[in-house]
Here is the input.
Amino acid sequence: MSRLSYYGDMALRYALIGLLLDRPGSGYDLARRFEEVVGAYAWDARHSQIYPELRQLEGEGLIEVAERGARGRTTYRCTSEGLAALRAWLMAPPARPGGVRNEHVLRLFLLGALGREEALVVLRRTEEGATTQLEHLTEQFARLQEGTGSDSGGPLGLTAQYGIHSYRATAEWARWAIAQVEADPDFGLRDVEVRSGH
Amino acid sequence: MSRLSYYGDMALRYALIGLLLDRPGSGYDLARRFEEVVGAYAWDARHSQIYPELRQLEGEGLIEVAERGARGRTTYRCTSEGLAALRAWLMAPPARPGGVRNEHVLRLFLLGALGREEALVVLRRTEEGATTQLEHLTEQFARLQEGTGSDSGGPLGLTAQYGIHSYRATAEWARWAIAQVEADPDFGLRDVEVRSGH
DNA sequence: TCTCGACATGTCGAGTTTGATATGTCACAC
DNA sequence: GTGTGACATATCAAACTCGACATGTCGAGA
Here is the structure.
């Protein structure tokens, strides 16, 4: 079985190994961590994909069962083989550039299809969303600094800062874009320009 | 046929309509535009997916054949129905937050799995990559400003600026992260910490 | 005791996406 | 004239992913 995932080879498995390296967890637990942390801006997966992948990884010896608890809970832990595989993957430069999917960014790409007022609505929505995320992550980073007693907040602090930089950039871009559109009475498609259906 | 794509409903079709709105083009042409422009940070698609989707869209009347040229070239154009569909999609708030896939960002998330020196290698690689992209996009933006005679560079200028903001944020974050790791002799996993395989 | 909601895992059909493979045209250089 | 590389479209098996459905446990509070 070749186990080649199309989006950046085997990203899901390394995400899981990495999550387990941080701390052991069950499939349920990992599914929630995906949703809350990784899913927001790095990768996305559902439990229906996570459970089979965990069994696969266990079969390959990259993770192991740490504990079988109540309610059928199976807690996994990363093995040294898993860590070695993850490190090898991280050090190898990405096979393919691109391979990105981000619906939110795609929408921003297509803004030219809207009229001026509509574009402003979408841009304001973008600005608000980014600002909210920024506040959220800033708090989280402060907690990480306290928790680790380090300025960087440890490895998770690095991640949080990445998010902070990204969302700040988006919010700043949105404010710039709003100003540009507001200053340009001709921005966007006129309804007049719409071509007839055929 | 329900035509529900899992990653953000029907993102591919709207990306294609949007690309055709900018200017008509053939499947081959759109495949290249995907690779060069959209694929880099918004969405990704191959010709083997693009050709069938174009036929589907034509069947639904959202795009139409503009011209049949040499070498079997079929140039498509967006119809008013297609534009209306695109606008409706853009104005409807995204069904699902998240749904993001970005292998590059995922790698950054997993940096904690590396030792100090290895993490620095990856971070420096990240910083260089982002800086290169930044230079590239800055040039492109200047050309768009010239071309459109507008400060914003038109809708494509907005897109280019988004990229500029994003890559600048990544480069700045990488420099910050490098400084943090360099200042912290204890960063990263010690080989000693690696657990035995079982 | 019973019910509700969070915990926890599992399955599968339907649909999506890839990478490989195939076919052929055209322009240009050698 | 013939080889090379860009142009241009097509197909399909294999693999991946989703959403929906299914099953059951456990603790807390009514």
